[in-house]
Design the sequence.
């Protein structure tokens, strides 16, 4: 009975895995086919219709180097700024025992319940009046939207750090900045990696906020570039699929390299 149950679970798992993998398979396989090859047979591997010209043309039309540079710059700067402010904020909230610190932490938690669509239009209007509809303004908005979850993760981790370590540093003559950056922040490495990964994947793949904020072609990120690319080549599935593969390769590689740190960091932040 137990063996048959395990076999059923295994079969269901295999079926679900095939269902989830099938879209990626279709996209990857058809990106190497000509337009005629795609319409003749979507499922089969490329044989007579195999070509690499799709990738070459899509790479040029996407202006991939420029859009990739924009995405890297915005993502890296945003993540660094989020880590810098959220780690300090969480540390002060944990070490400052007062009603005000409790209230501020609750506000960070409550802000995660506010949907982006509710603040989207007034936010863009205010940022437009401030002259921040540019990559700098986009980074500033990512700081606002990304800080809440980051503070919560850091808050849970910092509670596990003995306060005596910081008290010993005070006796040695360290000020608050030295205590945090020389003593506390190195201990936060596991959760910092998790915060960096989660925010990197979210910011890299984000489409809606860049679409509202970025109004110049030379500032466009990869998701935004792909949106206009698909609009331009909606009937050229060979180019569209090749462009899609090119756009997802960097974040897939990043995720495969760093995936073990995600589970480890979340467990450290929640359990501790």
Sequence:
């Amino acid at each position: 009975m137990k063996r048959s149950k395990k076999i059923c679970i295994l079969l269901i798992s295999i079926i679900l895995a095939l269902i989830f993998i099938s879209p990626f398979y279709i996209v990857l396989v058809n990106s190497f086919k000509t337009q005629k090859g795609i319409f003749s047979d979507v499922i089969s591997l490329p044989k007579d219709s195999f070509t690499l010209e799709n990738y070459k043309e899509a790479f040029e039309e996407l202006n991939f180097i420029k859009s990739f540079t924009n995405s890297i710059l915005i993502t890296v700067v945003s993540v660094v700024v989020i880590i810098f402010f959220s780690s300090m904020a969480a540390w002060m909230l944990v070490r400052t025992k007062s009603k005000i610190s409790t209230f501020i932490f609750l506000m960070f938690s409550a802000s995660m319940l506010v949907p982006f669509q509710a603040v989207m239009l007034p936010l863009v209007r205010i940022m437009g009046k401030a002259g921040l509809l540019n990559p700098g303004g986009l980074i500033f908005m990512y700081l606002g939207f990304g800080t809440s979850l980051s503070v919560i993760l850091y808050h849970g981790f910092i509670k596990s750090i003995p306060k005596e370590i910081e008290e010993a540093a005070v006796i040695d003559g360290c000020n608050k900045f030295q205590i945090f950056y020389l003593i506390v922040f190195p201990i936060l490495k596991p959760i910092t990696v998790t915060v960096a990964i989660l925010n990197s994947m979210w910011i890299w793949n984000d489409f809606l906020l860049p679409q509202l904020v970025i109004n110049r072609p030379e500032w466009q990120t990869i998701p935004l570039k792909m949106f206009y690319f698909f609009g331009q080549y909606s009937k050229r599935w060979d180019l569209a699929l090749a462009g899609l593969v090119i756009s997802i390769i960097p974040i897939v590689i990043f995720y495969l390299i760093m995936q073990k740190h995600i589970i480890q960091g979340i467990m450290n932040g929640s359990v501790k």
About this structure: The mean pLDDT is 84. Residues 237-271 form the longest helix (35 residues). The two ends are 39 Å apart (CA to CA).
